[in-house]
Amino acid sequence: MIRVGSQLTFCSPDKILRRAVVELNEQNIIKNIFSLDDLNVESSHTLFYDGIMSAEIVSVKQQIPADRLSEAIKDYHYLEFSEHTPLTVINRSEKPLIIDFETESTDKINSLLPYLARAFSAFSLFEIIAACTFYPSILLGRSAELSVNQTTRLMLWENADLVFKRLTVDTFIQEMSGSKTSH
Questions:
Q1: Which top CATH class is 2-56+145-176?
Q2: Which of 4, 40, 120, 128 has its CA 20 to 30 A from that of 135?
Q3: Is there a contact between 11 and 30 (Cβ–Cβ < 8 Å)?
């Protein structure tokens, strides 16, 4: 089991915790989420990171057959974002945004994040995290909120602008797992 703490934890678009710790077991099941502010003493054996924790990034395209994808995404502002995507500024829509990297590999996603920061400059970091984690999970009928007993590949978004809540060209993610931390 590991305990991972960060300045912000993105549970859902309506629930962003400050100074929270997530306890994750070896099977990547969340056993507890708690605020450091609620403790009288510091939590022992906790790894503290500078950034935002979230649930795993989900690729809808990898989960839904191509012949059913257009019907499944009709209620979303769905954008595929890969190395072949032309760099343009993305505008807002009335529909919830889903960003699909067409992969769940952190290495491939990290290579795309500098381009994403430029294309989505009008969006807050929380809107982007929701578009990569929360809304794809809802679309797939999965538990979307980061919560106790949820199985997830916990992600840490680092080098983001936490003051203005924006992605930067230096933002990257790393996976935090219950058996080890990896980069």
A1: mainly beta
A2: 4
A3: no
pLDDT in tens, 48-82: 899 999 999 999 999 999 999 999 999 999 999 87
Strand partners, 8: 18, 52
> Among all chains, which residue has been given the structure tokens 């099941």?
29
Q: What residues pair up with 150 in beta bridges, in sequence order?
A: none
The 3-state secondary structure of 18-49, one letter per residue: EEEEEEECCCCEEEEEEEHHHCCCCCCCEEEE
- The strand order across the sheet containing 30-35 reads 30-35, 15-24, 2-12, 46-54, 154-158, 172-176
Domain-by-domain residue ranges, the chain?
A: 2-56+145-176, 60-139
Q: Tokens 């257009």 appear where?
A: 70
| Tally: H helices and E strands in the chain | 5, 8
